[in-house]
Amino acid sequence: MKTFLAGILLFLSVDLAGVQQSSTVHHVLERSTFTAEQRLLDLAKVWSEGRFSFAYYNTIAADWDSLFQHFIPRVLAAENDYAYYLELMRFGAHLRDGHSGVFWPRSFNEVLGYPPLEIRKIEGRAVIFRCLHDTDELSRHGVRPGLEILQVDGKPVAEQIAYWRELMCASTEQARDRLAYFRILTGPRNSVVQLVVKEPGGHTRTLHLKRSEKYFGDTNLTPPQPFSTREAQKGIGYFRANVMRAPVNDAFAEYLEKAGDLRGLVIDLRYNGGGSDLISFDLISRLIDQPLPGPVYEVTAYRADRRAIKYKQEDIRTSGGPITPATGSRFTGWLVVLIGEQTHSATEGGFLSVIKNRPMTILVGEPTAGSTGQPLVFRLSTGGIGAVCSRRSLAPNGSPFVGEGFQPDVPASLTQQDLYDGQDSVLEKAFEILEKQLFSVE
Predict the structure, then answer these.
(1) Domain 227-370+405-413+420-436, what fold?
(2) pLDDT per position as a tens digit, 342-354
(3) In 228-287, which ranges are continuous DSSP H helix?
């Protein structure tokens, strides 16, 4: 949802813990300033919001109190502030929800970094997915997408993956993997990380790269561009939306206006981390000629008096629809929607849950992140923030998708060789499917 990322960025813009310009990386990561009372207060705050505000509390209720007790000695024993936040994040990760969790103070972001590389799980391996910047260092070492990472600072890459998976709060395993793999090269800012990488052909080599990027560069937060298009081929158009925000809606309307008579269309949402349900509805309105029911939103209206007499709390449902056809240019023919593990939030709840009911629509790619909702964001006394999802989102027919993700009608995944060769076999599959639908001879 739009408010999740906006809220996180708003809170992170204020560093309550503080870091002086003269502070060293060593000092920030090893200082110990939080009192035992502060540590327990923040742990209890996360527990309390989880207990009374988390929309999916029933899924964790059996373990939540015992987890709280388990983490009390852990947060008290943490040797410094940074280690304390790692424990608090581990506790929050048990919410198992992509719109919830604990986020440490900005001072840690300032002193942690990673090389300008995005790492993803490709064919079960840690593979360089893309270079975030074209730097002299990467060029000099021949670093490119498609290289598999075998070791990080002398340790098997599996150890780093397991470490970060424990810290990431996500609704599905594919979403947790994406968040964890992205962070496996993290370390002190501007330090050097040693990597052992393997080419697709099997050749291995050792690299030393500077951790030049500031931490928290999640690609959901800073897409390289909000949208892109390609010229139509054989009457098949292509529109890639990386966020669900107003410029994307405006660009899509303009694209359809200028594209003319399209016979087929690919909408690429593989790298779309969400935004606003309303923008998702606007996009849908340009893809339909009949109204479609919208998603269902559900909240539990907690009342202490009902709890006192052991009455069940009341669930309140509202609908986000119906979505009606837009005026102006629209496309109502064969549509392929590309999806993947980064397809998240409003892109799932506001777009995919609805568009699945559109005729002549095929989902292609990988399972989505399986998370959307309305986060409740709260401050912690030690400078970080917490968040719990306060609203459940359901498909228009009332069925759940959070914790599962949307499954593709046609599974398709990028390979290590695709990345190494600069190919996009998933997009090629989309065009192949549309050409078959449009041009096959009966």
Answers:
(1) 2-enoyl-CoA Hydratase; Chain A, domain 1 (3.90.226)
(2) 999 999 999 999 9
(3) 246-259, 277-285
